[in-house]
Amino acid sequence: MGEQQDPEKKEFLEKRSKGTSFEPDLIWEVLSRLPSKSIVQSRCVSKLCSSITTQPGFIRSFAARSSESPCLLILFKDKGNMFVFSLPQQQKHNLNSNNHVAVVDSYSMPCPGKYHFLSSESVHGLICVEEPSGNPQVWNPTTRRFSTLPKPARRWGDDDRVSFVGYDPVDCTYKVLSMPCRRPRQPRALTLGGGGEGGARWRVIKGLPEHAPFRRGARCVNGVLYYLAAPTLDDHRDNQFLVSFHVRSEKLSMMQVPWNLTRGLRQLLHCEGKLICVISNGGDDIIMWTLEDAEKHKWSYKHLLLPFSRRDPVARTRFSLKGSKLQKSRG
């Protein structure tokens, strides 16, 4: 415990040291070494444990430690319930023995309405989920909590809307960017935890003409949130571009993309610190465009032939890219 404390943590521990027979810094260290399931349970032990585990400094340190051993999050929805499984991303396998996948954590909880996860990714431990006409929600799978955000704008009405979460590694700040899909609008941003209880406010982000975002996901890479968009919904095939939102400065910028497709699936990925767009026409090959230099708009191109068929008609499975690895999924 000889490491230097950050001012926020030091101030919190000094205030909590009064009126307790235990050293708060010792409790902090013990809690920081517990698995996520035990941390959630510890909140019912005492107000001190609950207060420590909800501190931003504690959450940041836990997220940093968890990033050293990343997990795969598997989600099932059935009859209004959500079943969550967390699996280690890398496991050692022995071909001479019957191996079972080690589950890091698992739980079930009521599914929050008709929210979907189509456009979502885990950004430093948080996932933004959306219901087309409802309020955006941010899900923390570790604490098992959903936080409901206010609606971005009343005049948007019940428009089909998409929201993305971004993270700034410098200030350790999360921000949510939201905008309608069907009608071009300027996006709005909200800082998570900003302004205290009920104090968070959506801000109009200017700097680009109004545009319509693609629903199929965004990616946050090194403090910059990227998403594909077009001037209008009708231009999604022929006139698309890439929008970048600098989470810390809230600056919007746009760059033209090097591909020109009238069909095919485009998906943004985050791989080894770079943004990648994977394009697939449903065959046994994929095209990968990697953003090598965002300032110079420099891309590299690869055309890959898969060493296997994308679809297995017997097992009714297909392969799809979700990150830096190939994942097998039902469908």
From TrEMBL:
Pfam families: F-box, FBA_3
Entry superkingdom: Eukaryota
Segments forming domain F-box: 24-58
Domain F-box associated beta-propeller type: 71-323
Alphabetized InterPro entries for the sequence: F-box-assoc_dom_typ3, F-box-assoc_interact_dom, F-box-like_dom_sf, F-box_dom
Protein name: Uncharacterized protein
Species: Eutrema salsugineum
